[in-house]
Amino acid sequence: MLLIDSGNTFTKFGISKNGKLLEILNLKNSSLTCEKLEKILSKSNFCVLCSVRPDITKLIKKVSKKTKTKIEELNLKFFKKLIKYKTPQTLGSDRIANFLGAISKQKPPLIIIDIGSAITCDIVNKKGEFLGGFILPGVEMCLEALYKKTALLPHLKFRKIRKIYGDKTKNAILLGVFNALTGGIQRCIRVLKRKFPDAKVIVTGGGYQVFKNVISFKHTYRKNLTLEGLLCFAKILYNKSHKQDLKGGNYGKSCN
């Protein structure tokens, strides 16, 4: 079985065999072609997908018809009762996958942080219900905004600066973005911890390496949390198809 997590910048592929996550490939969205996808999809006749890029979803579905790979997109219909978001139709499937992956690995309450092109910070209460959270711009998004919304500031790629303050404009921008997002992430945690003091923090996302040495709160890092959530969803589909009863919406146990 193939698991696909298509984010804003990268698409990650995982292979599941006997219920275990085995093989992972990470490709930049700009490098995805029909030929590459055909080679990947032809290895499996069933695929579970979550995507925040409609164009990539369309491309994957197009190629899947050629390879005769059945695509099942992550959706809310199996666990609506656990999603307490006011606008569930606007909830990104990556956040749903992270939620499923988190509750399959750790007992709630949980705070889930995904550091990617955008940064999300979500809370799961003691009942295992997804309540919502925060969405922040990611590092590259901040740098792009500063470049496009000003007349003189340069276009930069992020790199770490080992200084307290910027002694030239490039350093000032990089340090400003880094400190703003570090403070933003920590602030989100503090706010949620006031109401959910027992919540354990799980962090995922490709941007974790940028912040791992300055994040002061205790946390667990799960590199492939989104794919773990997709594997959980696949197991839920299997249980449903075999008419196994998921009493009380206990999806965490159903994923094990």
Number of strands: 10
Major beta-sheet overview: 5 strands, mixed
H/I helix tally: 8
CATH topology name of the largest domain: Nucleotidyltransferase, domain 5
State which percent range the strand residues make up.
15-25%
Give Rg in angstroms: 19 Å
Q: Report the CATH superfamily of the largest domain.
A: ATPase, nucleotide binding domain
Q: Quick check: average pLDDT?
A: 92
CATH class of the largest domain: Alpha Beta
Strand adjacency order, main sheet: 3-2-1-4-5
> Globular, elongated, flat, extended or rod-shaped: what is the shape?
globular
Number of spatially distinct domains: 2
**Element string (H = helix, E = strand):** EEEHEHEHEEEHHEHEHH
Given as residue ranges, the uncertain stretches (5+ residues, pLDDT < 50) are 245-249
Helix content: 25-40%
The separation of the N and C termini measures 16 Å
Please give a quick description of this structure.
With 256 residues, the protein is of the alpha/beta class.
